[in-house]
Amino acid sequence: MRPRAAHPGSSGTQLIAYSSQCYTVSVDVERAIEHLLELHARAEARMEKADARMDRADARLDRLEKQLTATANLVRAGAKIVRRLAIAQRKTDQRFDRLIGILARQSRNGRR
User: Fold this and answer.
1) Looking at residue 16, what DSSP letter applies?
2) Contact indicator for 7, 15 with CB cutoff of 8 Å
3) How far is it, in rounded angstroms, from Cα 82 to Cα 27?
4) pLDDT (tens place) for every residue of the chain, 112 residues total
5) Cβ–Cβ < 8 Å for 44, 33
6) Calpha distance 98→78 (Å, rounded)
7) pTM, whole model, 2 decimals?
8) Can you give the residue ranges of every domain in the chain?
9) Environment class of residue 2 by beta-carbon count within 10 Å: exposed (0-12), middle (13-18) or buried (19+)?
10) Are 32 and 18 in contact (CB under 8 A)?
């Protein structure tokens, strides 16, 4: 098969194509373009799914942060209550010790 000039160029260059291969090349290029478009469409769909998963993960993370903050606040409040109870317990122990001291002195006085 002999090459023939497809389009003579005005700038002195010529495009040479073999008549039987020209059709095959153009079909291959079209197939390649279609394949690339399909790949792009699939990639876009995967990206949308990934975005949706990321949005759900962000929402879960926000809820977790709120729960963690609430838990930290409860722990702080509980620690304050425990400190107050410890102070109250010391005061009660001191009063009880004084009462025991008073009762001990009274019972000694009564025995003498």
Assistant:
1) E
2) yes
3) 81
4) 444 444 444 444 444 555 555 556 677 888 899 999 999 999 999 999 999 999 999 999 999 999 999 999 999 999 999 999 999 999 999 999 999 999 988 877 655 5
5) no
6) 30
7) 0.50
8) 4-111
9) exposed
10) no
